[in-house]
Amino acid sequence: MSTEKDMADLLTEQIISAVIDVHRILGPGLLESIYEEALCYELSLRSIPYNSVFSANSVVKKVR
């Protein structure tokens, strides 16, 4: 019987595999935006849902 942890572990393995495949194909040294676009495509091919861009509020030295 699959537990929630087992499902999370499987998803993690699938995501890491997608990231490794993208890096293996593209190689090092490209802009982050290129890797992001390629990873989004790879995740789509694997039917893994994702959000490509999200905003995060952060506070550094009391400045937002």
Number of helices: 2
Given the C-alpha coordinates, what overall shape results?
flat
Count of individual beta strands? 0
Through-space gap between termini: 46 Å
Strand content: under 5%
- The multimeric state of the shown protein is single chain
**Helix fraction by DSSP (H/I, runs of at least 4):** 55-70%
Rg (CA only): 15 Å
- The stretches of 5 or more residues where confidence is low (pLDDT under 50) are none
Question: How does this model look, in words?
Answer:
- The protein is mainly alpha-helical.
- It has a domain at 4-45.
- The protein has two helices and no strands.
- The chain has helices spanning 4-26, 32-45.
- Helix 1 crosses helix 2.
Which features would summarize this protein structure in a list?
mainly alpha; flat
Can you summarize this structure?
The chain has 64 residues and is mainly α.
List the helices and strands and how they pair.
Elements: H1 4-26, H2 32-45
Helix pairs in contact: 1-2
